[in-house]
Amino acid sequence: MASLDQENMYAPKRVVDGKFADNPRIMGHDSVDIHTLGLGNQIPGTGSPSRGAALYCGQAYTSIEVVLEGQATTDASGNPAGTTVFRGIAAGSFLPVLAVQIQATNPATTQTGELVAIL
Predict the structure, then answer these.
(1) For residues 74, 57, 87 and 51, what is the CA-based torsion angle, rounded to 10 degrees?
(2) Domain contains 21
(3) Residues 6 or more apart from 8 whose CB is under 8 A from it?
(4) Could you tell me if residue 74 is inside a domain?
(5) Is 2 contained in some domain?
(6) What span, in angstroms and rounded, lies between the C-alpha atoms of 29 and 48?
């Protein structure tokens, strides 16, 4: 049986040690509107160090396809190596995930505030 660290090898160890990027965060300090950013683009602020953003859904979604923090590798063509699809999301929901990119939404995000990344 693998140890917990091996099973969680893509999740950064978040401890309070004086380095901002490693510290646990419980509140958002910035946001990015996905309608303005566009699908398939990396969410600003999630690059280096690689850390994801939670999502606020201002409308109901049948599905949202995202690239999570631990999936932020690419194949030989430069496409994300892995994605995760979340289904049945109610309007006004927060998704406590660590997304670095939004690949697709159903229905489409057509207005500001419908899908917001919270950093």
Answers:
(1) 30
(2) no
(3) none
(4) yes
(5) no
(6) 17
Q: Which domain holds residue 70?
A: 27-118
**pLDDT tens digits, one per residue of 39-92:** 999 999 887 766 889 999 999 999 999 999 888 777 788 777 789 999 999 999
Mean pLDDT across 84-102? 94
DSSP 50: T
| Cβ pair 100, 67 in contact under 8 A | yes
Residues whose CB falls within 8 Å of the CB of residue 101, separated by 6 or more in sequence, listed in order: 40, 41, 42, 43, 46, 66, 67, 72, 80
What the block records as the tokens of 55 is 């999502």
Q: Taking the model in full, what pTM does it have?
A: 0.75
Domain presence at residue 69: yes
Domains: count for the chain: 1
Of residues 112, 104, 103, 99, the one with CA closest to residue 45? 99
Task: Match 């599905």 to its residue by tokens.
Answer: 63
